[in-house]
Amino acid sequence: MRALLVVFALFWFVFALLSGAGQQDQGISVMLRNLPNAMPWLALFIVIYISFRWELAGGLLVVAAGFFSMAFFNALTSPVVLLAVSLPMVVLGSGLILCWFSDRRQTP
């Protein structure tokens, strides 16, 4: 689950960083201007780091980030955003929580 979260966050971070870079011939300066768009995805990396240390807390934070993204991006009116951004975070965060419960059940 955590590896999928890293791939998910890395994809959206790179997408946010490079969006608009092909429109102009300025290269790195366009990426630097897009850096504020990529910052929320850096925050998700911090949450993923937390999930590596504390699986339950990280899972809860990822689920909360998924629900927050639904409100922030108004995802209920945009099925693409809902299916590509918000729901994967909720599903992966729920998976972390289920993994935590599964590990607790197996540990004597």
Task: Summarize this structure as a short list of keywords or feature phrases.
single chain; 4 helices; elongated; 0% strand; 108 residues; mainly alpha
Describe the 3D structure:
This protein has 108 residues and is mainly α. Helices cover 82% and strands 0% of the residues. The chain is built from 4 helices and no strands. Helix 1 packs antiparallel against helix 4 (79-106). The longest helix is centred in the last third of the chain and has 28 residues, at 79-106. The two termini are 23 Å apart. The model has no long low-confidence stretch (mean pLDDT 88).
> Mean of residue pLDDT?
88
Percentage of residues assigned to helices:
over 70%
Number of strands: 0
Overall shape: elongated
Based on CA atoms alone, the radius of gyration comes out at: 16 Å
Profile the largest sheet.
none
The ordered H/E elements are HHHH
| Spans where pLDDT lies below 50 across 5 or more residues | none
Number of helices: 4
Beginning-to-end CA distance, first to last residue: 23 Å
**Coarse structural class:** mainly alpha
Q: What share of the residues does DSSP label as strand, in percent?
A: under 5%
